[in-house]
Amino acid sequence: MAIGIFGLLEVMLIFINAIAILNEDRFLAKIGWGRQVADPYGQESIKARLVNLISAVRTLMRIPLIGLNIVAILYLVILG
Amino acid sequence: MQFGRSAVMAGQEYVEQNLNRWVNRAALQPYFNVSNSYVVNKLKLLVFPWRHKLWTRILKRSETTGETIGYLAPRDDINAPDLYIPVMAFVTYVLLVAISAGTSNKFSPEILGPTASSALAVIILEFTIIKLCVYVLNITSDVPILDLLAYSGYKFVGIIVSIMVQLSKAPSSVFWSVFLYTGAATGFFLLRSLRYVILPEASAGTVLPPQRKRRIHFLICLSVLQFGFMWILV
After folding, report:
1. Looking at the complex, does the CB of residue B114 fall below 8 Å from at least one CB of chain A?
2. Are B114 and A5 inside 8 Å of each other by CB?
3. Tally of domains in chain B
4. Which long-range contacts (CB under 8 A, 24 or more apart) does A2-11 make?
5. Given this model, what pLDDT does residue B178 score?
6. Could you name the Gene Ontology cellular component terms for this entry (chain A) (predicted)?
7. How far is A60 from chain B (nearest CA, A)?
8. Under an 8 A CB cutoff, do A4 and B114 touch?
9. What pLDDT sits at residue B161?
10. Interface test with B, best of A6, A8, A19 (most B CBs within 10 A)
11. How far apart are CA B140 and CA B63, in angstroms?
12. How far is CA A32 from CA A28, A41, A48, B1, B133, in A?
């Protein structure tokens, strides 16, 4: 009984939050993880895939995350 | 009498309608198309996978045109993933944990919920890891989600065997050797089954050697991870 399903969902939410707050100009570009031009031929390296994933999470999840965080906070305040 | 029957019929229809809205029955049905001999053979294979030779699934061909349309159902093909064994093993696992709590007089009904929840959490965690690695490694084979769930659910069979040994008051050395054996068997089974998911033969030409190597490493890591998942659950 290490961790329940809600605990796991919480962990995932916190991880996505962590990815979403990485700043493109101040942080990612400095360590060479800034957004690159996508390789149209598909044979990308692991790093390129990760960079893509981060930028996708940052653009796509920003607004849903607000709602998800509110739901999680309410759940933890009331039932946690 | 007539009125009762029509009421039951209407109820059935209502349930069916609502069920179809939430669950895709047509996609789910082949996973439960099992026979007794399939279940027995699959359980044997899960406990002793070392001598099994052929791990590819059999393609189903259309009767009229001869084109391939998906795979054969588990009833006719032992290598096809089913959901019957994982679901049953999951329920059995939850009950067995409750029994083992009962033998040490620690049983309370509240045990059942957290056990099921943590088992589900392990399955979801494994599923997320696989999906993430499939994305990062740029693997383009489209595996149905239910296949992955089935493969990660098979580990409950090994866990059940380990818990049975634990329940029979065997010495801890026997328990650990049984646990290591079932872990290795589950890992090996997963290694051979998922090989055709992660290293598709058809696109062998487009996979570069370093990429292939990375995928094999991922497969091996995944099978070693089975020990960890099983240890959490035992």
Report:
1. yes
2. no
3. 1
4. A2/B118, A2/B232, A3/B118, A3/B121, A4/B114, A4/B117, A4/B118, A4/B121, A5/B117, A5/B118, A5/B120, A5/B121, A5/B124, A6/A75, A6/B117, A7/B121, A8/B121, A8/B124, A8/B125, A10/A72, A10/A76
5. 92
6. COPII-coated ER to Golgi transport vesicle; endoplasmic reticulum membrane; Golgi membrane
7. 17
8. yes
9. 92
10. A8
11. 29
12. 6, 22, 11, 76, 22
Contacts of B2 (CB under 8 A, 6+ apart): none
Query: Would you say B187 and B224 are in contact if contact means Cβ atoms under 8 Å apart?
Result: yes
B230 CB neighbours in chain A (<8 A) are: none
Q: Is residue B46 part of a domain?
A: no
Residue B130 placed within a domain: yes
Residue B100 is assigned to a structural domain of this protein: yes
ipTM: 0.81
Question: pLDDT for B47-77, tens place per residue?
Answer: 898 888 888 888 877 777 767 777 888 888 8
Residue B70 belongs to some domain of the structure: no
